[in-house]
Amino acid sequence: MSGAVRLIFEYDGENVRLVSRQHVDMAPPPSDALDGFAGQKGFWAELRGADGGLLYRQVMHDPIRRDVEVFSDDPLQTISGLR
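The structure assignment produced for this chain is given below.
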């Protein structure tokens, strides 16, 4: 099968679980560097082969939101952010 797989996760505190897996007819973006990142911190997704070898890597922004936008019922109030 060609194309990509879209994975959707949900989280509650420190618990993360896969809730949806869908095949999509589109090409994924090109891989980021497969080496040269030892000892670095951050967020990325990896695709590994059956032998454990790294095949694909996509660096991303922090996927877990730590802030929330709150809207008031009062139309004269502005939006506020909570952390």
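Interim note for the steering committee: The first strand starts at residue 4 and ends at 12. The mean pLDDT is 86.
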